[in-house]
Design goal:
3 helices; single chain; six-stranded mixed sheet; about 150 residues; about 10% helix
Length: about 150
Amino acid sequence: MVNAQEWLDQNYPDETRNQIKELDVSGKSLEGSLKLSGFTSLQKFDCSSNQLTKLSLADTGNLVDLNCSNNPLANLALPYSPNLNSFDCLGANLSKVDNNSATPTCPNPATNTITVTAPYSSVNSSSSGNNLAIGLGVSGFGLVGLLSIGAFV
């Protein structure tokens, strides 16, 4: 396993990050916390199939596609992303998503936090292993396409 933040910092210097539109770090045996800072142009991010426990997407308000599936993620910090079309967190253990925006359209403007608890029957039965199942409304993240939430059983 490789420390996720160290790997990112070594492979993507600060001065180049604002030019990157797509970043695929899937299946790289990354572990621990990962904070994407400086990726202001990022539209597509795939960090699936790693061992990430915390993910912060602080400067990624232009995201269209996000795949953080198959990680033991408990917390995800996601800025207001009005163009977010695809959010896949299948196999993650998300219980909290922080919306780092004071935008009044975030799901809970008072706390900028989405917290969801079981049961999740309102989404579908396949989401039974994931504490995040509802609350990612169209007004909160601009999500209009694919939303995959759940755990592999």
